[in-house]
Structure formats: C-alpha cells, structure tokens
C-alpha cells in the first residue's frame, strides 16, 4: 500500500482508496497514477509515461490529458493549485505529495510493532502532536509521517527513514523543524562532507557522537560508550576509563556502537540523524545497515538524508536502500517541489512576516518566482533576495508595502542567476568531467529542451557518440532528463532532453564566452541547413534564431526572409509579416550602405504581406456575413 495525504494506492488489488473507501477509477488512469506515485517529486515527461505504460502501442499524447482530468476529479485536485499532480507545461507531470509505504493498509512500522515485546514502562506510544513549523511551508504531512515513525520507535520498534530530494528542496529545514519539537528524545546529529567523508571512516557518525557527548545527556552517553564501545570514545579524543592507549589502537567495531546506542535508547528514545549520505564512506553505510537489521527491540530512530542526483545506479547507498526497502526495514520520504500556493506562503513569510500575513503582494510576483524557482524553496528565497538587491522589488516604507520598480523590464528581471545559486550550481558542475561540462554547455545553447544532434553539431562531435553520452548523463546525473525522440530527414533518430531546472541551463550558458557561443550557434544553423537541404524554408526560422544569437545579422535577416517566404507559400500572411517586421528591426545592426538597400526590400515585402492579411480578413468577414 502506498499512502499520500488521505489517499492510499492498493497496488495488490489495483484500486485507489480514500481512507478505507474505494474510489472507482478505470484501469488506464489508475496505471498513470501508479506510475506517478512510484516516482514522486520527479518530472515525468509525456514520452516517458507513454513508453512506460504503452511500450509497443502508438498512443496520442492528448489522451493523457483525459486521464489527468479523471485523476484530478478522483483526488479532488485543483490544477491551478495542485496538491498531488502538477502539470509542467509542454513537458509532463510531477507528483507533489509525500508518498509512504504501508503493509496491508497499516504503516510498516506499525505492522512490525505488533510483533515486538511490550513497550517499556513510561515510553510514549502515541504520535506526537507537532506544531506548525516555523520557517517552512507545505511540509506538515512529512512532519506527521516522521512523528508517526518516531512513535513506533518509542514503542520499541527501531526505525530507519530516508529523506530524499534535490539540493535546496528543504531536507535540512524539515529535520530542524522535526528535531526542535522532540522534547522526549536524545538527538545525535552528524553530516557527511563531500571529499572528506570518503577519506575518513565513520566521519558523520563521529560528529554525531561528539555532539551527543556534549549534550545534556552527554555524561550518560560517555559512560555507556566507555563501557561498551571504548574504541569509539577514544577515536573522538576522549579518554576512556579502560586502557585508552590500547583501545585507541584497535579498529572501531560497528557492533559495539550498535549495542551502545541501543542501551542509551533504553531510558530515553534516541534519534540519530545523518545528513548528505550520498557522500558517506562505506563504513558509515554498513553501520546504518547494521542498525536497521538488528532484531532486538530498540527505541531508536535513524534519519538519513541524501540527494538522489548524486546516487548513481551502482552507488552503494542505492543498493543499501533498495535492500532495506525490500525487507521493509526502512521508509523513504521524497520531498517534492512546492506548489504555487505554497510558494505564495513562503514569499509572504519572507517578505511580510507572520504579523503581516494579510498584506498584499505585488501582482505577478508569485507567478514570476514560482516559474523561475520551479518550487525549490532555496531558489525561491534566493530569487527574492536577487530581486531586492537589484531593486526590482522595492519596499515602500510609507505604505508598508512591497511593489515592483516602475517600468521594470521583465526580460531584465529574467536575466542572470542569483549569485549564491550560481555558485552552488557551479560546484555541482565542477564535479563533472571536462567533456561532460562541455556537452552540457553545448546543450544550453538551445532553449529548455534540446536535441543531441544539435549538441553534436555545436561541438563538432560524432552524433552517435553524443547520443550515447547523454543517455549516460541522464542515467547518472540530475542535470538532464530524457523527453522524447525525433526523426531527422536523413532517417536517423535523435533524442530530446530537457534540463532538470532552467537555472542550471542559464549558468551553463553564462560560462561560455560570447565568441564561443557564436561559433557554436553558427554550426547548429549550418547543420540545420544541411539536414534540410532543399527544404530550408521549414527550418529557416530556427536557423535565424541561431544566427541572431551569434550576432551574424546578414544571415539572420536572410533566414527570416526565407522563413517569411515559406509562410507566404502556406498562405500564412500574418506570420510572414511578423517575420519580416523582425528582420526589419535587425537592419539597425547593419552598416549603412547595406542597411539602406535591405530596408527598402523588406519594406516592400512587408507592405505586400500586410495587404494580403487585409484581403484575407475582408474575405473572412464577407463569408461570415453571407452565412
């Protein structure tokens, strides 16, 4: 059973439940819902859905819209402010809700608790009542889920929970909010560090034990460690009552620490938090495995966070989590991006504060920030700070209101990436090989979506090798996702990909010099002309975009004229006029002798196109009147 909100997906009987009440749902919409629920928080493209559910059958993509209407009706989900299924325009869908696993409609933790010994005297056995968390929005379901598992831990059933999500999605904020409200538990918290944890065994565990020994329960913890795991105490630089010289020379045994932690949790529940487990050393992962598998009752809860984009298919953490989930020894909470209404609440919290919750926000601010951030809380805050720093967003102290800068250009507000985010993304990019970075830079020359043949053309690479390289990139990394397939005029196929986040694309685009971008754009345009030789008019508009981006104004104007000619052949007179108008604007970039002749020619063609538009409108009006 997979649970989200008040709903459950009974995968064994293939039915949707609201509480315990079945909801009628046809097989195909159910299959779509199941696929979305099994991949929460991730963009699922139209092509991926169609390929996964109808692998050998051609199905019109429009059929998905019908199924989504059925699902929204069954879930009572508002498309404008979704709680469950978010539509990503022209790309696909994303399941927003937190999904948890249950056994026969009962949480795994609860099911296991039924087979454990009696609860120790004085142990709480009910779900803690958590207050709304300060500083985070739209995570109450996740807090309640953690609270439920904590209650099971208090009842003697050890718990392991993985919290997953992209950088900035709010994993640490959720943990802070959860731990701040645990008054009846001992908390030990450690964090993996990229590049360091792999060099030092048990680095995050040692940090957590250090914090534990320095806490109000530290004296008791040190005594238990000195008695049951003296080597661990010595490794932290603390002397053990035993022979500290000899113990410090021996290898730290995970079994000793497991037994010590279980004894420490005997009187007071213990929560061990390990963050960024994607950078953990193998020894730390083995310890987590041991803590999860031990059969003795323990009032112990292990919470680990990690970023899925850093966990490749062959990563030991992926193998560990899959094995524990198969044995029902862990649960996973995937944090989805914030929906627009949640972004609104976060913006109000950041700009207005809780005492001014009823104040007005500038019109269009919520839509702008939600579109740019794509629901990532860290990105939301960074974009707000960027707008304020650039004085696009101004606080009027006289009326105590935020407002847009008068005459602010939307294109200028869109340009650039907040400095802090750019640095964070640069760190992510720097982890890639030089060839991978170069390929992603080439991909950024297109818009949000790109084809592998265009990247190969921009970088002068072999198309087949580029195709294979992007398949591997999409498998291992978070940067790009497969979005579809396109057949080229020469009969070969080329895959479409999309960037996981628009801001990643912008940083990759900005990394390239203007001259380098220009050369690469021209190569793409020239490759388009070669692919569609004899039918250049079909792609002339796209060629013009690349020539314009390269600053090659004569070729950009020539391509726009070719596109206009193609539009006229199709009797699309309004489109032709629009293309010619744009070409006329570009003539300002030409030198004077060339510019004068070009303006005369374009003006004549524009007049002809507009006359055709006028005649077409008159015919339509006459036909309408006669009817």
Mean pLDDT across all amino acids: 84
How much of the sequence is in beta strands? 5-15%
Query: Helical amount among residues, as a percent range?
Result: 40-55%
The number of helices is 27
Q: Structural class per helix/strand content?
A: alpha+beta
Rounded to an integer in angstroms, the radius of gyration calculated over CA atoms is 29 Å
The main β sheet shows up as: 6 strands, antiparallel
Walk me through this protein's architecture:
The chain is elongated. It starts with a strand and ends with a helix. The strands form 5 sheets. Strands 4-3-2-1-8-9 form a 6-stranded antiparallel sheet. A 5-stranded parallel sheet has the order 11-12-13-10-14, with helices on both faces. Among the domains are: 2-95, Winged helix-like DNA-binding domain superfamily/Winged helix DNA-binding domain (Arc Repressor Mutant, subunit A, Orthogonal Bundle); 100-334, P-loop containing nucleotide triphosphate hydrolases (Rossmann fold, 3-Layer(aba) Sandwich), CATH 3.40.50; 340-415. A hairpin with a 4-residue loop joins strand 15 (393-396) and strand 16. It is α+β, with helices and mostly antiparallel strands. The longest helix has 35 residues, at 592-626. Helix 20 (452-459) packs across helix 23, helix 23 (514-531) runs antiparallel to helix 24 (540-550) and helix 25 (553-569) packs antiparallel against helix 26. The protein is built from 27 helices and 19 strands.
């Amino acid at each position: 059973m997979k649970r989200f909100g008040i709903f459950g997906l009974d995968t064994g009987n293939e039915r949707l439940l609201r509480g315990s009440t079945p909801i009628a749902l046809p097989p195909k919409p159910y299959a779509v819902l199941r696929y979305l629920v099994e991949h929460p928080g991730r963009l699922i493209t139209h092509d991926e859905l169609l390929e996964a559910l109808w692998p050998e059958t051609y199905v019109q993509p429009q059929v998905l819209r019908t199924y989504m209407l059925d699902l929204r009706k069954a879930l009572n989900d508002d498309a404008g402010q979704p709680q469950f299924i978010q539509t990503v325009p022209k790309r696909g869908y994303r399941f927003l809700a937190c999904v948890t696993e249950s056994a026969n409609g009962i949480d795994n933790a609860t099911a296991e608790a039924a087979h454990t010994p009696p609860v120790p005297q004085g142990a709480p056995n009910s779900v803690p009542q958590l207050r709304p968390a300060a500083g985070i929005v739209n995570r109450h379901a996740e807090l309640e889920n953690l609270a439920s598992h904590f209650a099971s831990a208090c009842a003697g059933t050890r718990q392991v929970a993985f919290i997953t999500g992209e950088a900035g999605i709010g994993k640490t904020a959720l943990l802070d909010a959860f731990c701040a409200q645990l008054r009846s538990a001992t908390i030990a918290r450690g964090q993996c560090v990229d590049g360091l944890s792999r060099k030092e065994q048990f680095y995050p565990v040692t940090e957590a034990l250090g914090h534990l020994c320095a806490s109000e329960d530290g004296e008791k913890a040190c005594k238990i460690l000195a008695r049951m795991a003296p080597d661990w105490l010595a490794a932290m630089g603390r002397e053990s009552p035993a022979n500290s010289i000899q113990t410090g020379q021996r290898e730290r045994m995970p079994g000793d620490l497991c037994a010590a932690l279980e004894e420490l949790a005997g009187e007071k529940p213990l929560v061990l938090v390990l963050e960024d487990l994607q950078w953990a050393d193998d020894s730390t992962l083995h310890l987590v495995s041991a803590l999860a598998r031990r059969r003795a009752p323990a009032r112990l809860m292990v919470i680990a966070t990690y970023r899925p984009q850093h966990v490749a298919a062959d990563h030991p953490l992926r193998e560990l989590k899959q094995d524990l989930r198969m044995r029902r020894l862990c649960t996973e909470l995937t944090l989805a991006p914030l929906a627009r209404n949640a972004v609104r609440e976060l913006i109000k919290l950041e700009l207005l504060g809780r005492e001014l919750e009823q104040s007005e926000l500038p019109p269009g601010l919520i839509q702008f920030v939600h579109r740019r951030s794509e629901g990532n809380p860290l990105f939301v805050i960074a974009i707000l700070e960027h707008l304020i720093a650039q004085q696009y967003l101004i606080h009027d102290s006289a009326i105590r209101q935020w407002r847009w800068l008068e005459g602010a250009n939307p294109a200028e507000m869109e340009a650039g990436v907040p400095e802090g985010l750019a640095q964070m993304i640069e760190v992510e990019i720097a982890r890639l090989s030089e060839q991978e970075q170069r390929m992603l830079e080439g991909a950024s020359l297109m818009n949000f979506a790109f084809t592998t043949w265009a990247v190969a053309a921009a970088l002068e690479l072999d198309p087949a090798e580029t195709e294979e390289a992007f398949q591997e990139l999409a498998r291992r990394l978070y940067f790009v996702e497969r979005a579809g397939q396109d057949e080229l005029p020469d009969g070969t196929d080329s895959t479409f990909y999309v960037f996981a986040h628009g801001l990643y694309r912008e940083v990759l685009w900005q990394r390239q010099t203007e001259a380098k971008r220009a050369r690469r754009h021209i190569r793409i345009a020239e490759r388009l002309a070669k692919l569609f030789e004899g039918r250049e008019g079909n792609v002339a508009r796209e060629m013009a975009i690349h020539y314009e981006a390269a600053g090659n104004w004569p070729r950009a104007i020539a391509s726009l004229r070719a596109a206009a000619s193609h539009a006229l052949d199709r009797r699309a007179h309004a489109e032709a006029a629009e293309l010619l108008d744009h070409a006329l604007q570009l003539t300002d970039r030409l030198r004077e002798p060339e510019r004068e002749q070009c303006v005369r020619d374009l003006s004549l063609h524009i007049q002809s196109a507009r006359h055709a538009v006028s005649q077409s409108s008159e015919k339509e009006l006459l036909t309408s009147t006669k009817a």
